[in-house]
Structure formats: structure tokens, C-alpha cells
Write a structure and sequence with these properties.
The protein is an alpha+beta fold. It is 20% helix and 41% strand. It has a single domain, classed as Roll (Pnp Oxidase, Chain A). The longest helix is centred in the C-terminal third of the chain and has 15 residues. The radius of gyration is 17 Å and the shape is globular. It comes from Streptomyces rapamycinicus (strain ATCC 29253 / DSM 41530 / NRRL 5491 / AYB-994). GO terms for molecular function: coenzyme F420 binding; oxidoreductase activity, acting on the CH-CH group of donors.
């Protein structure tokens, strides 16, 4: 189990309403944990961006997700682990949009993978049950690699009374 560190929190007044306040990290973390859908941005070998939706779980201070070894995002992360994961309400005037920037680290330890698999079932239901063996998830004859992205920097974009918060870890 990894200990989660409290980040430095700062409101960017250049991009915030005059009376906005910084969003506290516990609220940002709760939003990351509760979201159902995320968008992963990676970089292809030729430098072009690749963005794809996925599901993920927050565990031990990081977002964890899985992908097939032959999928574009897995190939991109193999050559450059830097990525961004975004989530939010998808509406203009309310809510909190969140961005996590970091490096995707492969998770191969079966004990940790079992904890991540249990978190998938708890969050998304029994249809997301994975078998764990040989350092990967397995489901209906398919293998999935598992990655964790601990935030290096994260951003919260509060809408309505607009405020942009940066969390540095």
C-alpha cells in the first residue's frame, strides 16, 4: 500500500473569478474517485496525440486503469509513459472538472492487482470482474495490462464561480 501525500494547493488568480477560493485536495480527490468515465491522453510515437475514454479506480493515491496489450494507448505508454487523465461533468456552468498529469506505471504485482480488481467490482459491478494471474488482468480469454497514474500535478476547474486550482505533489 502506498501512502498518499498532501499536495501544495494554489489558486491561479489569472484564470479565476475575483472572489474564488482554491478547491481543497480532498474535494478534488473525491471527484477523481467518484467519476465513472475518464479520458486518457497519450502521445503516439510520431508525436500525434491519442485520446480515449476509459473507466478507472482511485486506489492508494493514484488512478488505475487497464487496457489490452495491443491497444493504441498501451503501445503509446510503452514508449512514453507521460499522460493526462481528465474527468468532469461535461457541462458549462457548474461542477468541477479535473485533470491529472503524471506517468503511467505498469502494475504487475498480483497482490496489488487483486486489490485493483476488487476496486473495479466495488465501483462498476460484477461485470467488471477480472481474474489476476501472471501480472495482468484476465477476462473472457483476454489479457489486460494494468497501469497506475499517481498525480505529479493535478488541476481543478470549478465552474460557475470560476476558479482554477493547481495541486503539486
Amino acid at each position: 500500500m502506498i501512502t498518499e501525500h498532501e499536495p501544495q494547493t494554489a489558486l491561479d488568480t489569472r484564470f479565476s473569478s475575483p472572489d474564488a477560493t482554491a478547491t481543497a485536495w480532498p474535494e478534488g480527490r473525491a471527484g477523481l474517485a467518484a467519476a465513472e468515465l475518464y479520458w486518457l491522453s497519450t502521445v503516439r510515437r510520431d508525436g500525434r496525440p491519442h485520446v480515449t475514454p476509459l473507466i478507472a479506480v482511485w486506489l492508494d493515491g493514484a488512478l488505475c486503469f487497464c487496457t489490452g496489450p495491443d491497444e493504441q494507448k498501451a503501445r503509446n505508454l510503452a514508449h512514453d509513459p507521460r499522460c493526462a487523465i481528465t474527468t468532469g461533468a461535461g457541462v458549462l456552468r457548474e461542477g468541477l472538472d479535473l485533470v491529472v498529469e503524471g506517468a503511467a506505471e505498469p502494475v504487475r504485482d498480483d497482490a496489488t492487482l487483486r486489490r485493483i480488481a476488487a476496486a473495479y467490482v466495488a465501483k462498476y459491478g460484477e461485470e467488471w470482474t477480472f481474474q489476476v494471474r501472471d501480472g495482468a488482468f484476465h477476462h473472457e480469454g483476454h489479457e489486460a495490462l494494468v497501469f497506475r497514474v499517481a498525480p505529479a500535478t493535478a488541476f481543478g476547474f470549478r465552474k460557475g464561480e470560476y476558479g482554477q486550482t493547481r495541486w503539486r505533489f
